[in-house]
Amino acid sequence: MEQIRRNFASDNVSPACPEIMEALVAASSGSVPSYGGDPWTEHLRIKIRTVFENDHAEIFPVTTGTASNAIALSTLCPPWGVIFCDESAHILNDECGAPEFLTGGAKLQPLSSPDGRILPETLQQTLGKRDFSRPHDNVPSALSITQATEWGTVYSIEHIRELTDQARSSGLGVHMDGARFSNALVTLGCSPAEATWKSGVDILSLGATKNGAMAAEVMVVFDPTRAANMGQRLKRSGHVWSKQRYISAQLLAWFDNDLWLRNAGQANAMATRLASGLARIPGVILPWATESNEVFVVLPDLLAQHLEAEGFGFYRWDTPSGLEGVLIRLVCGYDTRTEDVDALLESASTI
Amino acid sequence: MEQIRRNFASDNVSPACPEIMEALVAASSGSVPSYGGDPWTEHLRIKIRTVFENDHAEIFPVTTGTASNAIALSTLCPPWGVIFCDESAHILNDECGAPEFLTGGAKLQPLSSPDGRILPETLQQTLGKRDFSRPHDNVPSALSITQATEWGTVYSIEHIRELTDQARSSGLGVHMDGARFSNALVTLGCSPAEATWKSGVDILSLGATKNGAMAAEVMVVFDPTRAANMGQRLKRSGHVWSKQRYISAQLLAWFDNDLWLRNAGQANAMATRLASGLARIPGVILPWATESNEVFVVLPDLLAQHLEAEGFGFYRWDTPSGLEGVLIRLVCGYDTRTEDVDALLESASTI
Amino acid sequence: MEQIRRNFASDNVSPACPEIMEALVAASSGSVPSYGGDPWTEHLRIKIRTVFENDHAEIFPVTTGTASNAIALSTLCPPWGVIFCDESAHILNDECGAPEFLTGGAKLQPLSSPDGRILPETLQQTLGKRDFSRPHDNVPSALSITQATEWGTVYSIEHIRELTDQARSSGLGVHMDGARFSNALVTLGCSPAEATWKSGVDILSLGATKNGAMAAEVMVVFDPTRAANMGQRLKRSGHVWSKQRYISAQLLAWFDNDLWLRNAGQANAMATRLASGLARIPGVILPWATESNEVFVVLPDLLAQHLEAEGFGFYRWDTPSGLEGVLIRLVCGYDTRTEDVDALLESASTI
Amino acid sequence: MEQIRRNFASDNVSPACPEIMEALVAASSGSVPSYGGDPWTEHLRIKIRTVFENDHAEIFPVTTGTASNAIALSTLCPPWGVIFCDESAHILNDECGAPEFLTGGAKLQPLSSPDGRILPETLQQTLGKRDFSRPHDNVPSALSITQATEWGTVYSIEHIRELTDQARSSGLGVHMDGARFSNALVTLGCSPAEATWKSGVDILSLGATKNGAMAAEVMVVFDPTRAANMGQRLKRSGHVWSKQRYISAQLLAWFDNDLWLRNAGQANAMATRLASGLARIPGVILPWATESNEVFVVLPDLLAQHLEAEGFGFYRWDTPSGLEGVLIRLVCGYDTRTEDVDALLESASTI
Predict the structure, then answer these.
(1) Dist CA B108 CA C26 (whole Å)
(2) Given this model, what pLDDT does residue C5 score?
(3) Are C98 and D235 in contact (CB < 8 Å)?
(4) Best mutation target, B94, B236, B245, to test chain A (most A CBs within 10 A)
(5) What's the CA gap between A11 and A331, in Å, rounded?
(6) What pLDDT is attached to residue C130?
(7) Considering C85, C116, C290, D208, which has the largest number of Cβ atoms within 10 A of its Cβ?
C-alpha cells in the first residue's frame, strides 16, 4: 500500500486520473483535422448535449478555468458592463483581472454573503438601489454564480432559480463558474440540466481539471446567441489548440461511465469524513457547512502549526471576523483516500 | 505495415509522438505543487538554460503558439508601439489579432519580402523613412522574426544578426517566432545559443506542438528585464495551468536525447525528398527554397485536383503574382515516412 | 437685478465665468503652432510650476475630469494593478469604467469610510490583510484620494500625509482627484504645494471646469518619471487638441489674480450659508460637515418635494442607512449668490 | 492692414473664427442641464437633421477628430475586426493607434492608391482575395473613406457609391473621415445628404476644427442601430463634456448662414490660387490635383529652403518614388488671404 497522502492544499495538486491518461494515449494515433475538426470534439458535442439534455448547447473546450470563466463572461457583458458576483468569487479574487481583461474593461461588483452564496435579497437590493441609466454608470450585464462556492457550500436549485429570475428580470445574463460543478451535482442529486439551463443558467464554465483531468474545461453555452464570435474570442486570446483532440478526449473520458460523478463522489465523501472528524476535536470550528470537497476550519494556531510540522499541506486564509484562531482550507481530491483523511484526523487529535 | 498517410495539410494534424505520451503518463503520479512549483518545471528551466547555454534565461511554458507569440510581444512593445514583421508572418495573418489584443492595442507593420525573410534594406528603409517622434506616431518597439519562415525558408545567422543589429540601434526589442525553430536549427546546424541570443534575439517563442508534442510551447526570455510581470500577463490572459507539470514534462521529453532535433530532421528530410521529386515533374514550380519541413509548389490546377481526388490533404494558397497555376502547401511532420512522400510523388507523376 | 438662480444640481450647470471667456476671445488671434506648441501652453507650464513651487512638474491639459483622472491613473497603475479609492469615489461610480479602460483593465478596490475620507486604519488593514504576491492577485499599485471628497468634506494635510506615507511604504503611487481641489484649498488655507506634492501626491488631476472654466482640466505630474509616454497616452485616447491654446488660455486666466481661489471662495461661502440655514430647520439633518461647495442634507420627503415644486434643482441620493428621510445634494458654484441661497432657505422654512 | 500670414503648416494653426467666438460668448449665460441636456445640443440635433435631410440621424459632439474617428469606428468594427482604409489615412498614420485602442484591438488594413482615393478594384481584390472565414482571421468589418483625402483630392459621388456598394455587399459598415468634409462638399457642389448617407455612408465624422471652430467635431450616425451604447463609449473614454453647450454652440454657429461652406470656399479658393501659381514655376511639380484646401508640391530642395528662410511655415513629407526634389504640404485655412498666397508665390518666383 502507498504511503499516506498529506497534501490537502488543493484539488489541483493531484495528477490526472488513470482513465483520463488512458484516453489521451488512445487518442495519440492517426492524422486528424486540427482546430476542433477532429472526431473527439464532435463526439464530445453530442455527449454534452445528451448529458445536459439540450440539443442546442454549443461547447468550447479550453484548458484553464480562468479562460473558461473570463471568455464566457465576455459574451455576457460588454466592456462597459457590470458583473455581479459573491465577494468570495474566484473571478474577483484569484484571476489577476482576467475578467476585466477579456471583457475589455468590465467591472466586477462584489456582493457580501454569509457563506459564499449570494442572498437573493442582496442582489435585489443592489439592482434596485441605484439608477443605472445615467451615462456615467456601467451597465448591469451579468450575474456570476459559483457552484460549488469558494467556501465549499452548494446552492440549492430553488436558490439558483430565485437568483436567475431576478437576473433575468433586470436583463442580466447568467454565468455559472462550475470549477467544482461535479462536486455540487453529486450533493444536489439532480440532473445536470436542472442544475443549469433549466434553472436559468446561460453559460456554464464546467471544470474537469480539479476533478481528475490533466487540463480540461469546457464552456457549455445554453443560449446559442451567446456563442457568436466565440471562435474569434478564443483565437485572439490564444486559447485555440491545434491538436484539440487532446482536450476533447479528456472530457469524453470524464463523462464516460460517470467518471466525473464517481470522482466527485469520492472527493465529497472524504471531505465529509474529514469535516465530521474535525468537528469532534475541541477548539475546532467549521464556519461553513461542508457540502462539496472543501473543508474550512478555524482552529488554534498551535494546532495548525502542529499539522504543518507533521507534513500536512494546506493554505491559511483570513480568519472570519468574530472568530478566534486561524482559518485553514483542506481540499480533498478524487484521489484522497480514507487513510489519508484518518491520518490527518489522528494527528489533529493527538495534540 | 500501416496504410499510407496522405495528410500534408499541416504539421499539427499529427498526434503527439510516443516519447511525449510516455512522459505524460510517467508524470501522472504523486501530488505536487501547482502553478509551476512542480519538479518538472524546475528541471525544464535547468535543461533549457543548458541547451541554450544561458544561465539567466527565464522560461514560461504555455500551450499555444499564439499565446507564446502575443504574450512575448507584449513584453517588448507597449500598447502604443509598432511591431515590424514580414508580410507573411503568422502573428499578422493567422492569430485573429492576438498581438493587438495582448499588447493592449499595438500596431503590426508588415514588410514586403521575396521569400518570407525580411530584407535588411527594407527594415532600414522603413525605420529611417519617417520621423516617429511626433505625438501622432505609434512608437517603433519590436521586430519579430519568424524562423523558419512561413514560406519554409530559413534565415542564416548572418542575416539574423544584420536585422537584430539594426533593431537594436533603433531601440527595438527582438522576438523570434520559433513555431518551427527546431526545423530551422537542423538546417542551420549551429547551436541553439548562436541561433538566438548570441545573434541578438531577446525572446524566443519556441514551439514543440508542430514537432511532436501534444501542446507545448515555451517562451525563452534571454533578457531577464523582459520577464518582469510575466506571471501577471499569463494569469490575466488565462494561460497559467494549475497542473503545469503536464506542459513541462512534454518539453523535457522533447529535449531528452535530442528528440526535438531527430523529429525535426525527419520532417525536414521528408520535405526535401518531396521537393526534389516534385521539381522533376513538368509544369511544377517551387517558388521558394525548401529549407525546413514545408514545401510550397505552384502546379497546374488539374494536377492539384487530381491529388485532392486521390485523397491527399493540403491547403491552397494565393498564387504569387507572375506565376500561373495554383499554389499549394505540403507540410511534413515528424511522422511523415518515405512511403507517404513517395505515394504522393507517384500519384503526381501519373497524370 | 437678475432673477433668482434656483439650480443647485451641480457646479457644472453654470456657464464659464466672464474672465475665462475674455481670455478665450483674446486668444483668438494669430496663427500659432498646434498640439501644445503655442505660447499659452508654455506660459501655463511656467505659471503652474510657480503656483505649485515645483520646477520639475510636467503639465498635461485636457478637457474632462474623467480623462484627467483615468489617464493619470494609467501612469500609476499597470493593466494588472489595483487602485484603492473611497467607496464614494467618482472614478469608481461615475465614469462608466474609464479607469478600467484607460489603464487596460486595472481593478478599483473601494474602501468604506464614514464621510468620504479614507481612514488610514482602513487602508492599512486592506494593504496588510492579504498576501498580494500570488500570481493570481492583481498588484496593488495606486491610491486615489478625492480632495474635496464626494461628500463635500476636506482631508486635512496630516490626514493626507498619513495616507500617502502608507501608500509609499507599500509601493503605491498617489493620485489626487482634484475636481474640486480649489474649493478644498480655500478651506485648508495652505499652499498648493503643501496640499499636494509636499504631502506625498504624485499626480494631481486639477479641475477648473466645475469652478468657472468652460472645459479645462490639467494633470500636474510632480514625479517626472510618471510623465513618460503621456503624449502617446493622450493621443491614442483622442485627448490632444490641435488648438491647445484654448485649453491653456482658460487655465491661465483661472490662475490669474487668484481667480481660482476667489471663485472657490464664493462657492464655499454660499455652501456654508446654505448649510447653516438648513441646519436650523427642524427635521433637517446634515450627515457630513460642509467643508467645500457641496451641501448634503437629509430632509423629509415632503420638504424635498416642496423644494422641487418651487423650481429648485438638485439630485436625490441614496439615504445613508440609519437615517430617515431623503438625501439631497445642493451644490453652489462660483456664480451662486446670497439671494439664491436665501431664496432656497426661505422656501424651505415656509413649509 | 495686417501683416502677411506666412503659416501654411496646417489648417489648425488658425484661431477660431469670429462668428464661432461670438457664439461661445453668447452661450455663456444662464444655468442649463449638463452632459448634453442643454438647448444648444437640442437645436444642433434639429439643425443637423435638416442639413443632412435625415430625421433619424443621431449626433454625438466631441472635440477632437481622433476621438470622432476612433469612436465611430468602434461602433462599426468589433475588437477582432478589420478596417480597410487608404495607405495615407489619418486613422492609420496620425492617431497613435487610437482606432486600435478604442475598438479594443481591431486591425487596420491599408490599401495602396495613386492619390489617396481607394480604387474600387483594389478594394474588390482585397475583399475577394482571402477566405476570411477561418477562426484565425480578423473579420472584415468596416471601410473608412477620407473625404477630402489626405492628399487633398476629393472622391466623386460615383466613386463613393462604388466603394460603399462593395462594402455593403461584403457586410462592411462605412465610415467617412470628414475632417475636411466641408472643403470636399464645396468642391462637389452636391447636398450633404448626397455626399453621405444617400451614397452609402453609415457614420460621418464631421470636423469643424480645421475650418473655423475652436474644437468641435460631431459624429453623425445615419444608421441608428450604430448609435446604441454610444453614451457609454464616450463616457468611458473621457469624451463627455459636462458643459456640452460649448461644443454644440460652436457647431450651430458653423452651420448658421452657411458659415461652414463660406469658410471652406475661402480656403479652397486660396489653395487653388496657390496651386496655379506654383505650377507656373519651373521645376515645381504638383503630384496630385488640388481639389480642396491642401496643396502638395514637389520642388527643388533649394527652393524649399528659400521659402523656409523667408519665414513660410509648412511641413516636409516623404517624396513620392519616381520624383526628384522634396515634397511639401501647404495648407490654406478659412483665414488665408489673397495677399498671403501671393506673398508666397512672389517669394517662390524670385529664386
Answers:
(1) 44
(2) 85
(3) yes
(4) B236
(5) 6
(6) 63
(7) D208
Fold classified for A18-258: Aspartate Aminotransferase; domain 2 (3.40.640)
Q: Mean pLDDT score of chain C, rounded to an integer?
A: 96
User: What are the φ/ψ torsions at residue C82 (nearest 5 degrees)?
Assistant: -120, 135
Domain boundaries, chain B: 18-258, 260-348
Sign of the C-alpha dihedral, residues A259, A261, A263, A265? negative
Which chain D positions have a beta carbon within 8 Å of C214's beta carbon? 24, 28, 243, 246
Cα–Cα distance for residue pair C264/C203, rounded to 1 Å: 21
Q: Is the interface score ipTM higher than 0.90?
A: yes
Per DSSP, the three-state class of B21 is helix
Asked if the Cβ–Cβ distance from B78 to C232 is below 8 Å, we say yes
Percentage of chain C exceeding pLDDT 70:
98
Best CA proximity match to D330, nearest among D340, B110, C198, C81: D340
Which of B204-208, D2-6, D88-92 is predicted least confidently? D2-6
> Within chain A, where are the H helices?
18-27, 39-51, 65-76, 90-93, 98-103, 120-129, 157-169, 181-188, 192-195, 230-236, 245-255, 259-279, 301-309, 338-349
The CATH class of the C260-348 domain is alpha beta
Residues on chain A touching B7 (C-beta within 8 angstroms): 31
Rounded average pLDDT over A89-104: 97
Q: What is the DSSP letter of D224?
A: G
Query: D131 to each of A246, B313, D120, D126, D209, how far by Cα in Å?
Result: 27, 18, 19, 10, 41
- Our CA-based measurement puts residue D75 at a distance from the nearest CA of chain A, in whole angstroms, of 13
Contacting residues of A for B34, CB less than 8 Å apart: 9-10, 12-13
Mean per-residue pLDDT, C115-131: 90
Contact D129, B318 (CB under 8 A): yes
Write the CB contacts of C127 (distance below 8 Å, at least 6 apart in sequence).
C84, C140, C166, C170
Out of D35, D80, D135, the one facing A135 most closely (by C-beta) is D35
pLDDT exceeds cutoff 50 at B66: yes
Cα–Cα distance, C154 to C166 (Å, whole number) = 19
Q: What's the mean pLDDT when you consider all of chain D?
A: 96
Q: Count of CB atoms within 10 A of residue B282's CB?
A: 6
Q: Are residues C106 and A97, on separate chains, in Cβ contact within 8 Å? A: yes
Report the amino acid identity of residue B228: A
Amino acid letter at B65? Answer: G
- SS3 assignment, position C184: helix
Among D78, D136, D233, select the one facing A235 at the smallest CB separation. Answer: D136
Nearest to B103 by CA among B114, B93, B112, B91: B91
User: Where would I find the H helices in chain C?
Assistant: 18-27, 39-51, 65-76, 90-93, 98-103, 120-129, 157-169, 181-188, 192-195, 230-236, 245-255, 259-279, 301-309, 338-349
Instruction: Considering only the beta carbons, identify the residue of A34, A67, A240 that sits closest to B238.
Output: A67
pLDDT band at C1 (very low <50, low <70, confident <90, very high): very low
DSSP secondary structure letter of residue A119: P
What does the pLDDT read at residue A3? 83
Which residue, chain included where needed, has cell 468596416? D142
Which residue among C135, C233, C234 places its CB closest to the CB of B232?
A: C135
pLDDT of amino acid C135: 78
CA D319 vs CA A288, C27, D329: distances in Å: 74, 36, 11
β partners of residue B331 = B294
Residues in chain A closer than 8 A to D136 (CB atoms): 235
- pLDDT single digits (tens) A171-230: 999 999 999 999 999 999 999 999 999 999 999 999 999 999 999 999 999 988 999 999
Interface residue ranges in chain B relative to chain D, Cβ cutoff 8 Å: 79-80, 93-97, 100-101, 104-108, 129-130, 134-138, 318
Give the per-residue pLDDT at D350: 87
